[in-house]
Write a structure and sequence with these properties.
Blueprint: H1 2-27, H2 36-45, E1 51-53, E2 57-59, H3 61-84, H4 94-113, H5 119-137, E3 144-146, E4 152-154, H6 162-193, H7 198-222, H8 230-262
Antiparallel strand pairs: 1-2, 3-4
Length: 267
């Protein structure tokens, strides 16, 4: 019986590979309408794929994605607060345990890096980490929207747009600055301003990491010989890794610098 199943499995795999080979041969002579340089450039700058935003202006797809992700997070938080949190028990269920583990993870991150002042820091790193993770995974949904040129484009990860990455870096830097003001007043401001390159490094680290996955996927999908199955695997792996790694890196850096500038210096 096991031998029959194994033979059947090998036959199915062979048929799938044969179909893919036929598709590659039949479409091997086709050419892309745009050169790869134009495709990669537009994936970074969004010069051509503009979206008409509420009939007011033409904006990058990243802005629409950012508003969509913000609405999803806000709606989910509202539902949890109204319908689930009042029903929490001393013996947690699965959803309560999952939520408590997520909150506890970021709270311990804030406490370990800034034990003297961490209440606001814990709330911020949880929000930032959730936004980075959900916003990055949002790209996998592949939601298509029409552009002003009449073509359709998939909404990217919000932070794959340079404007979104810079905004996240600047907001994190302002949180660090507020910790310096609250902890050490004018001296804390000076300590924070010494690291003036911090928002730039945080922004471009986040932007480069998330954009690299999109560019690799575009590059793999562009060539017809690798445009079957492989882009799906590459996109999922890059997206999941970047979602986890970048959420951890930015929240860790924010908590670390916040603890440094807000800590009381001993004589």
């Amino acid at each position: 019986m096991d031998k029959r199943k194994r033979t059947r499995f090998l036959v199915i795999i062979g048929c799938i590979l044969a179909v893919l080979l036929v598709l590659i041969i039949l479409t091997g002579g086709s050419k892309e309408e745009e050169p790869i340089r134009v495709v990669m450039k537009d994936a970074v700058l969004h010069e051509y794929a503009k979206i008409n935003f509420l009939g007011i202006m033409h904006v990058n797809p990243g802005l629409v994605a950012a508003y969509t992700v913000t609405g999803i997070i806000f709606g989910f938080a509202l539902i949890v607060r109204i319908f689930f949190i009042p029903k929490f028990k001393d013996i947690p269920g699965r959803f309560q345990m999952l939520l408590e583990q997520a909150v506890g993870l970021f709270d311990s991150l804030a406490t370990s890096n800034s034990p003297h002042r961490h209440r606001f820091l814990g709330a911020y790193v949880f929000t930032a980490g959730a936004y980075i993770f959900i916003g990055t995974m949002f790209e996998l949904l592949g939601i298509m929207v029409p552009t002003v040129s009449g073509e359709a484009v998939a909404l990217p990860a919000p932070l794959a747009d340079i404007n979104g990455a810079i905004s996240m870096g600047v907001i994190s830097y302002c949180v660090i600055l507020s910790g310096g003001i609250a902890g050490n007043k004018f001296k804390g401001v000076l300590n924070t301003l010494k690291d003036f390159s911090l928002p730039i490094s945080m922004s471009f680290r986040l932007f480069g990491a998330l954009l690299s996955g999109a560019l690799v996927t575009e590059l793999v999908y562009y060539y017809i010989t690798t445009s079957f199955i492989i882009p799906v695997f590459v996109a999922v792996m890059f997206t999941m890794l970047h979602a986890l790694i970048q959420a951890y890196v930015l929240t860790m850096l924010t908590a670390l610098f916040y603890g440094e500038v807000s800590g009381q210096e001993e004589d």
